[in-house]
Amino acid sequence: MPLLVTDYSWTQTDSVVYISVPLKGCKAEKVDILSTDEYLKVHFSPHLFEAFLFEPVDDVRSTAKVGNGVAVISLPKKTNKIWEHLMITTYDKVIQKKIREKAVLKYQEKLSLESVSKAEKQHAEKKYALETMMKLEKEERDSIQKMKETEREKTTSELAAWQLRQKEEAQLEHQSQRDSQNKVKVMTDKQDNGCLDQTATSEAKSKKKQADLPAPRLAASIKVTFTPRVFSTALRESRVPEEEEWLKKQAEARYAVNADVKELKDLKGNEKNPDWLKDKGDKCFVTGDYLGAVHAYNLAIRLNRKIPALYSNRAACQLKLRNLHKAIEDSSQALDLLTPPVAANAAARVRAHVRRGSAFCQLQLYAEGLQDYQAALKIDPHNEVLQADTQRIRDIIQGTPFY
Q: Where do the domains of the chain lie, and which CATH numbers do they carry?
């Protein structure tokens, strides 16, 4: 049976009631506060403070500050007037029970609405993040394509200019030959008919000179090709050994077959495909069928134990099912497979760290959870949600008062 707190104190103004409840050495994180428009409860085992309020209050704007050994609750009044008492004077247990049950139902409805609102907000944030990522990727692809087109046009124009210069040089050289032939013919006509030998010698020299001239240069085309790259970074900026090791692991994961597949000989069609089972598990998770998702991931892992996304997604299901130790184990297995750390698996490593850190925090192992959130923040330092969650864990570890 809880010990009722009687040494509380309260003050009021026309619009607000302030209640101070001593915590008797209890830590702030172990204090449970429930407040509605007619009822207030402050529970810190084994003590209990319970108030059936004299007048209705605005529970939406009500606040509570816990710290320094005391809980201070601010209750805005719905009607601006001075109360004669803090609580109603009736001691009828039936009436108190009805008020208490009504308060619990209202509090549960409030939590349910907050949960739905939070889920919708998270879905909207994920959708926005996905659309933003797709937009950035499209802009990057368009930029790369534009650069390729620019280089191709530049190369084509340079080649055309080179061909034009070659053609002009050939025409000038041909014209020079024709001028030289004309000069020789004029000089020959002016010579005396008695100088036939000299004329013959000149013609022979002219023919020899023409024979010694090189032929016009031939036109040609230059073919330009671009080196294919699996990763988006330039080759000179890439971490080649790590990227090759990651690609090797991905290839092994696609073709690896576990020894116990022989036991799964009754599977048919797509049931033997780990990728199909992963998609099925993802669909179950989206619809809230977390047990069905776990079964699909289990079967996919039996078929192929080297796909990190299977372990990471199963860890997310275990978090929903409150199997926190299994969530930590699956997240750790996913991180072991997500090596070496390269740009291609950065997002997957962030998800695995956050899921393991969340499981640690729900087990009240905040120091271990903080390490995982810091590791995720190191990979994605500009993620505002990660920054806020990491700071919240630091505040809990340092015992900072919360509201």
A: 3-89 (2.60.40.790), 239-398 (1.25.40.10)
